[in-house]
Amino acid sequence: MDPVVAALRLLPPETAHRATVELAARFGAFVPPARRDDPRLSVAALGLHFPNPVGLAAGFDKNARAFPTMLKLGFGHVECGTVTPRAQPGNPRPRLFRLPEDRAVINRMGFDNQGMDAIAPRVARRRAGILGINIGANRDSKDRTADYRTAFLKLSPYADYVAVNVSSPNTPGLRGLQNRDELRRLLGILVGARAARPLPLLLKIAPDLEEQAMDDIAGVVLEAGIEGLIVTNTTLARPPWLRSRFARETGGLSGAPLFEPSTRVLAGMRRRVGAKLVLIGVGGIASGADAYAKIRAGANLVQLYTALVYQGSGLVARIKRELLACIERDGLATVTDAVGADLAR
To answer: CB of 322 within 8 A of CB of 288?
Structure first.
């Protein structure tokens, strides 16, 4: 085990997370930059040039303090947030649980963040790399759609794309925004708000979707004219084979148990939207083979987070090496050539 990971595992999960972000924020200048990526890993998507398809998912750098360091470590992009208009403390502790036997994490953080006014100056100082900003609504908001618009207008000038998080299981009622009529209204308002500064909009969806809900979401996003989907957030489901004593804690489950359901939804959405949208595959990625499976299921890009808890920052370089081995094995020229390959079977 990575000695840094081993040391952090001695701390309570949330303390370890905060310590990791603090170290990255304070000492990032001393982190040597990752090697230049093999051009076969580059991806053209969202009007951007990604040096590789492997991104850091939202949830790690909620307050936009560590993203320059994470980009230096070799991620092709980093997504900060979730950011809400007003600062909020999130749910009561404990709210973050490691499930090492299951290579998983359960969280019920509840959009804890310092708010858009604190975060905007940090992202405004960005000098390099691709940065996404994930936005959400305050828990006590009387008009959640207005919250998304407010956060979008404040933060979009500093982002390469904005992710609209309507799928966190830890803000009561939030997932209702995935319903057809509410989603149509929300996306219509955000598409109107970006008229003055066009940039890609992506919707982050849940893995706990029935076929009809997937049909509705696909129809609404294609009608709205946004650029992509992030597939998926954490799950409320609890597979019966989970072994950890924390398996029945409430909140969103991520890590290895999320791989199969999130990949199923990913493939389902790719079938529904064809090549019209960029899809970012998230959920359970812990190896190059996992990332490659997401890509073959329809992902243009991928993101990870939970596996870093167990494997450390060296995982990023290893996944990229393994991705190259996968495309070489299959005789492909670039990683993009594998997008959706399994759906043609």
So the answer is: yes
Chain centroid, CA 255 distance in Å: 12
Q: What is the mean pLDDT of the chain?
A: 96
d(CA 325, CA 327): 6
Distances (CA, A) of 8 to 3, 19, 99, 134: 9, 8, 15, 26
Q: Which of 168, 254, 262, 313 is catalytic?
A: 168
Distance between CA atoms of 168 and 179, rounded to whole angstroms?
A: 14
Nearest to 14 by CA among 3, 2, 24, 22: 22
According to CATH, what is the number of the domain 3-344?
A: 3.20.20.70
DSSP assignments along 143-197, one per residue = -HHHHHHHHHHHHGGG-SEEEEE---TTSTTGGGGGSHHHHHHHHHHHHHHGGGS
What pTM was estimated for this model as a whole?
A: 0.97
168 is catalytic: yes
Rounded-to-integer distance, Cα 53 and Cα 50, Å: 7
Q: How far apart are CA 316 and CA 71, in angstroms?
A: 11
Contact indicator for 69, 24 with CB cutoff of 8 Å: yes
Contact 343, 297 (CB under 8 A): yes
How far apart CA 110 and CA 119 sit, in angstroms, is: 17
CA distance 51 to 35: 11
Task: Using the Cα atoms of residue 89, residue 139, residue 170 and residue 285 in order, give the sign of their dihedral.
Answer: negative
Q: How far is CA 81 from the centre of its chain?
A: 9
- 73-131: pLDDT as tens digits: 999 999 999 999 999 999 999 999 999 999 999 999 999 999 999 999 999 999 899 99
Note whether 270 and 297 are within 8 A (CB): yes
Reference 229, options 302, 175, 180, 159; nearest CA is: 302
Question: What is the enclosing helix (H) or strand (E) of 19?
Answer: helix 13-27
Domain locations in the chain? 3-344
